[in-house]
Amino acid sequence: MPRITVDVDGTTYTDDVSPRTLLVQYLREQLGKVGTVVGCDTSNCGACTVHLDGQSVKSCSVLAVQADGHEVTTVEALARDGRLHPVQRAFHDNHALQCGFCTPGMIMQALDLLAEDPEPDDERIREGLEGNLCRCTGYQNIVRAVRDVSRQMRPGAGPAMEHSGRTPAPRTSTEQADTRVTGGQS
Amino acid sequence: MTATPVSPSEPEIGRARRRKEDARLVTGRTRWTDNMSLPGMVHLAVLRSPVAHARISAIDTTEARRMPGVHEVVTGADLAERQGSMPCAWPVTPDMKTPYAPALAVEEVHFAGEAVAMVAARSAAEARDALDAIDVDYEDREVVLDVEAAARDDSPLVHEELGTNRSATWTFDSAEAGTGGDVERALRDAEVRLDRTFRQQRLIPAFMEPRSVLVDPTGEQYTVWSSTQVPHILRTMIAMTLGVGEHKVRVIAPDVGGGFGGKLQVTPEEMLTFLMAERLGRPVKWTESRSETMVSAHHGRDQVQRLSLAARADGTVTGLKVDLLADMGAYLRLVTPGIPILGALMFNAIYKFDSYRFTCTNVFTTKTPTDAYRGAGRPEATFAIERMMDELAAELDMDPLEVRRRNWINHDEFPFDTVAGLTYDSGDYEAATDRAVEMFGYQQLRDEQLRRRQRGDTVQLGIGVSTFTEMCGLAPSRVLGSLSYGAGGWEHSQVRVLPTGKVEVVTGTSPHGQGHVTAWSQLVADRLGVPFEDVEVLHGDTQSSPRGLDTYGSRSLAVGGVAAVRASDRVIDKARSIAAHLLECSEQDLDFSAGRFSVRGTDRGMALTEVALAAFTAHDLPEGVEPNLDAEVSHDPENFSFPHGTHLCAAEVDTETGRVRIRSYVCVDDVGTVVNPLVVEGQVHGGLAQGIAQALYEEAVHDEDGTLTTATLADYLVPSAVDLPEFHTDRTETDATSNPLGVKGVGEAGTIASTPAVVNAVVDAIRHYGVTDVRMPCSPQRVWRALSGARASSATAAESGGGLGSVDPDQPFPTGGDR
Ligand code: FES
Ligand code: FES
User: Fold this and answer.
1) To 10 degrees, what angle do helices B231-242 and B268-280 make?
2) Cα-flanking dihedrals φ and ψ of residue B361, to 5°?
3) Concatenated DSSP letters for A95-144?
4) Which end of chain B has the lower number of beta carbons within 10 A, N or C?
5) What is the CATH number of the domain that holds B399?
6) Pairing of strands B249-252, B284-287
7) From CA B269, how far away is CA B116, in angstroms rounded?
8) Which domain-ending residue is among B243, B276, B296?
9) Is residue B278 domain-shared with residue B411, that is, in the same domain?
10) In terms of domains, do B136 and B44 share one?
11) What is the pTM (predicted TM-score) of this model?
12) Domains of chain A, earliest start first
């Protein structure tokens, strides 16, 4: 069995893996990184999305051996010191999740999309999330969340956005306060 | 969204609380069943039949047993004596035909995807590898795919021993029931008569989390984790099906990734995982692949609907006759036969029809069984009647809104006894419609439509209307009894005030994305006057939540939420007697508000939390009062609740390519009192997405051999973010009178209302070319063919079929699922 060395969420692992093991299986079954999930077997749903050297990939379409010598970031690494990453916060604030199964992949893909285009319009957001399926939300609140976070994140937050988890954008107390919606109108 | 800061003393009900559930879900700290592993656990894989109908003449497992890591290989023959028959809890008629339904096929398979053998191995990969080494000989039998052909006497049979493919015929007649007149007479006397046939295509619920089951037999009880909507029902059904003591089974629904009715099921795989764990005496886990979900988890819808409508020339409907064929698939699962019957009470919708007759024949085919999918019977009914109302408008050259106004129940006519025998407690269809019309800019869009028609634009504009109601809050037990359902519709809750004043709420509902933890916290915090953060909601484990009937049918809030509120009230009553004792006053002199008892006319009083501590120490309690502040309630609703709403869709249809684009979607729903507007809006969005998906994208298609050709997410078109529009939603609020909260339920509303709104818009855009219907999903190809058929013949075109999904024998090759 090939031996690989991978940095996952800041910890370095060296493991023997079978050549056919998918990255997502390695993460879930060998490393216990069960925050990343599997929703399909044809690379259509995006539930398994992680970052490989700062770029989003569907971890069901990458072999574990291909991650050898690379850096993997999963949703589990985004919150730091008990503070949510701004994208996580925005998903929470905008009710952008219901069952939450698509959420880890959706968040990782949203980060990638924002790294590429820090101020996307709605159409751009929808296109950027096209490879990630959600059966619960109808996407509208996910789009809102991404729009919301793109406004909050400081200009030039730049590529490798996972690093912003270490320095989350400050939020004012009014922003954090629970809000009341008048009517359900968008 | 307008956001304003709120004060802490503001009532919780109506407040847009961010969800408590989110913190774990956004950080990946989740407990999906498949995340779990136990010491000594082995993995189960299931071999499925590739053919739709065959005798199993031989199974050879020798090779598989020798594969590395394999612990056990089991076939149906090995389990024949042990496995029982999968339960069906809804015998809709006394003479309903129910086939033997083994979890693992014994002699014959009846659909492609049916389980025929299973392997337990050290790893999931080894278990799957061993499946390939199992050799099964199948002797093909004739497949039965088309529901109309299956219903005929000359059809080959799905289950030889039943002697027919017709499982049951269920009828309701308003003249017989005394709820209205004779529909045949209405049709005879009609000034206008419309006859239409609609096809409800087969859908796949497609929850994002594939199903998974883990069974641990190493304790005194068997512990079953399952990705299910119904842990309580599952526990009882495991006991009844396998003959194990119910007290020896504990079921846990941990985090569950969506259900939409698709996990309202007791599955063969749950039984098989249980039986394998029993055999091996060690924990066994089964997790399906997406392709397995698609073929083996139940499907939804799949009906042929024939309707005849009688009306006067002024648009007043005088009678409706409905004749359904409902495709059961190969077996009757938990509530399969009852799904179309749930629609029986809804075809008359929000209208005052004089006469009504409903007949439904349930038919077997050699396809995956059908069962509940979001809305369950009610979307089908709503679709058909809302399409009919638009057809009537077109026939009479009236505005579709005007036709509806002429027939609907006015707000001052509630409570209203319907022709189907239900009593609608409240509603205001005028208000919801007026608001929707205003938001939509109805008249401007009609003007634009006219201009585009006159100009002969390539892209035409259509406007679709859907005014709907649904019965939800399933359900008053006596009504379920009268429909021959095998259980009641009550719900249970216990509220416990702990010695430190924190509160635990136990609920028998079983959320899987709906936000019950947040909403129930709000309900109980308000009632008891404790902080939202101090309330914990326990659910989804038959050990911590021993009684309940789980989550489906938009029932959780209207039944389970009300149970929690009533239990809270009992806690207050209990606390009141202790407080009166300690404050040396009579109970009548105590006021309770904001979590505090105060003696009227004095400044004396004590907080509920102080009473809780006094109850716990029990040093000084009144005579006969037990030392706790716990109370429980089993709540059985007196009536259904009836949310309603008006949905308007503007769709652009490219007459050259057939492509449909939703330009604007407005809905105004009335779901009664709103506990959390954020959650309500989210439910509406998700519901709309699924209803629109039925109208435009999704269809389970079988080829002529009965193989599902849409068995992956590449072929079955669950819409992505680019496929759906921005929704414009609002609400009106007419409180339900059937429960103390005034709530109605919102889980299914969007799905039920949106499908006909979209299809009506598509047809409206191209009706002037002679098109009167486009079969769902309205793919570019279907729309284009409808258009070219209409242009060529100017008669009604035969719509291209969705393949054998499954009513169009003239069209042998599947064309559905195209985009
Ligand atoms: S699991 Fe569906 S894309 Fe990876
Ligand atoms: S939140 Fe359930 S699939 Fe997206």
Assistant:
1) 60
2) -110, 125
3) T--SS-SSHHHHHHHHHHHHHH-SS--HHHHHHHTTT---SSS-SHHHHH
4) C
5) 3.30.365.10
6) unpaired
7) 11
8) B296
9) no
10) yes
11) 0.93
12) 3-75 (3.10.20.30), 86-180 (1.10.150.120)
Q: Tell if the CB–CB gap between A174 and B685 is shorter than 8 Å.
A: no
For residues A136 and A185, what is the distance between their CA atoms, to the nearest angstrom? Answer: 19
Q: Is residue B197 part of a domain?
A: no
**For position B554, what pLDDT does the model report?**
81
B79 and B223 belong to one structural domain: yes
pLDDT at B796 over 80: no
Q: Which of A36, A44, A56, A135 to mutate to test the pocket of ligand 1 (most atoms within 8 A of CB)?
A: A44
pLDDT, tens digit (0-9, with 9 covering 90-100), for B165-219: 999 999 999 999 999 999 999 999 999 999 999 999 999 999 999 999 999 999 9
Q: Are residues B668 and B708 in the same domain?
A: yes
Residue B642 has pLDDT above 70, yes or no: yes
The contacts of residue B603 (CB under 8 Å, 6+ apart) are none
Which of B635, B650, B665 represents a domain boundary (last residue)?
A: B635
* DSSP letters for B549-574: --S-TT-IIIIIIHHHHHHHHHHHHH
Question: The domain containing residue B597 runs over which residues?
Answer: 490-635
Using CB atoms, pick whichever of B4, B25, B513 lies closest to residue A179.
B4
pLDDT tens-digit readout, B318-356: 999 999 999 999 999 999 999 999 999 999 999 999 999
As for how many domains chain B has, the answer is 3
Report the 10 Å Cβ neighbour count for B622. 12
B508 and B611 housed in the same domain: yes
Q: What part of A 88-127 touches B (C-beta under 8 Å)? A: 88, 91-93, 95, 97-104, 107, 122, 125-127
Confidence of residue B793 (pLDDT cuts 50, 70, 90): low
- End-to-end CA separation in angstroms for chain A: 54
Q: B626 with B659, same domain?
A: no
**Rounded to the nearest 5°, which phi and psi values hold at B228?**
-130, 155
Domain membership of residue B786 (yes or no) is yes
* Residues B500, B594 within the same domain: yes
Residue A42 to residue B712, Cβ atoms within 8 A: yes
pLDDT tens figures, B42-61: 999 999 999 999 999 999 99
Residue of B nearest to A143 (CA): B721
- Pairing type for strands B660-670 and B727-731 reads parallel
- The answer, yes or no, to whether residue B809 has pLDDT greater than 50, is no
DSSP B460: E
Residues B455 and B538 in one domain: no
**Torsion from C-alpha of B680, B686, B691, B696, nearest 10 degrees:** 150
- A84 min Cα distance to partner chain B (Å): 8
CATH number (domain holding residue B217): 3.90.1170.50
Percent of chain B with pLDDT over 70: 96
Of A44, A99, A179, the CB nearest to B712: A44
Summarize pLDDT for B215-256 with one digit per residue, the tens.
999 999 999 999 999 999 999 999 999 999 999 999 999 999
Q: CA of A4 to nearest chain B CA: how many angstroms apart?
A: 20
| Atom number, ligand 1, closest to the C-alpha of residue A46 | 3
* Beta pairing class for B192-203 and B416-417: unpaired
